[in-house]
Amino acid sequence: MTTQHVLILGSGAAGAAAARTLATRDDVRVTMVTRTGETPYTRMLIKGIAFGPTPPEMIKLPLPQIEVIADTVLDVDTTAKRVQLTSGAQVSYDALIVATGSVPRSLPAGVLEGDDVGQGRVTALHSLEDAMGIRDLLTSLARPARVTIYGGGIIAAETASSLQADGHMVMLVSRSSVPGIGAFGAPVAERLAADHAAKVQTRFGRTLQHVDETESGVAITLDDDQRIVADLLLVALGTTPAAPSPWTNGIDVDDRLRAAADHVYAAGGVATHHDEALGVWRIDHWEDAAAQGTHAAQAALHDLDISDDPGTYLPRSPYMALVYGQMISGVGYTAGADAQVEAGEEFIVRHETDGTVVGVTGIDAVGTVYQWGQQLHGLQA
């Protein structure tokens, strides 16, 4: 029997999960391309490096026993089924799983003087390098820092909470009057907005019009001409897909994570999903990316005629976020779904599409929320 070659691009949650699914099989050969000079790590743990004592080596992501190429993808030729690397090497495949993740969404053009968001005083919290830069800056100040956070989702909320607990002076700026609706749904976001207002300074319904970064600080002008001086500006505006050429803005996939090109699959933050149940959607968090990676590997095996059909991919993965001492938890899909608060002692919110529960969020109700995982999308536990 001919051994099929599955090539995985990316070593994050989706790529590592795909590799683990395939590595135990003797009917496929698995190769992974990681970024040049990068050691795979668990991105969901970088907050412990930025704001805690976690050393970088503690978040290293173990990979299964597969072939790993440390190089950078230059281009994918989906017709020839071949990947060109910057070193000049070419790698052919029978099936390709693109798991290249995402990059942080930047400030609008013209807002920031000089260079774009990097690892200086204007930064995201998306990579290990970002986390190390934030830790170094906060340590070097030897005093409570003035930190402005621009955003309202999970990263913004957790960061505001962590910094406030450590005694730093935090201002949370959000374009929305109720930040975090896309991440948490309206009922949870409304409660968090009240918590933010009670714990840190807030400027909701505002945008950044101008940012000037210097060696000693950051001068920020809001759209109402208010000026803010900070030691650090953290940009937390979400992410955009990071797809290699020939894709330019992520990869559209069907309900089995198949791209338009033959035997190409995408999983995690790089994938934009199109299915009958939820329409067009994208989820970029660790557990869901890992579940997508596993499903993409199973779909690839099926399409190579060596395994069963895994069926439709539907998001059921959990997440948690600790914000001001409260545990925010969720499962499934919450963005764009109708939110209904359940009656009862616990604060539980059902997110429904056409009468079907597709996601659940809650505050200090982790057990109840997680029990919904296998019942979402009309499925039975």
UniProtKB/TrEMBL annotation:
Record-linked PANTHER family: APOPTOSIS-INDUCING FACTOR 1, RIESKE DOMAIN-CONTAINING PROTEIN-RELATED
Cofactor(s) annotated in UniProt = FAD
Which keywords appear in this protein's UniProt record, sorted alphabetically? FAD, Flavoprotein, Oxidoreductase
- Read off the Gene3D superfamilies from this record: FAD/NAD(P)-binding domain
Gene Ontology CC entries for this record: cytoplasm
What residue stretches are annotated with the FAD/NAD(P)-binding domain?
Answer: 5-293
Kindly give the InterPro entries that the UniProt entry links to this protein. Answer: FAD-oxidoreductase/Apoptosis, FAD/NAD-bd_sf, FAD/NAD-binding_dom
Coiled coil: which residue ranges?
Answer: none
| Molecular function (Gene Ontology), one example | oxidoreductase activity, acting on NAD(P)H
- What is the protein name given in its UniProt record? FAD-dependent oxidoreductase
Q: Which domain of life is it from?
A: Bacteria
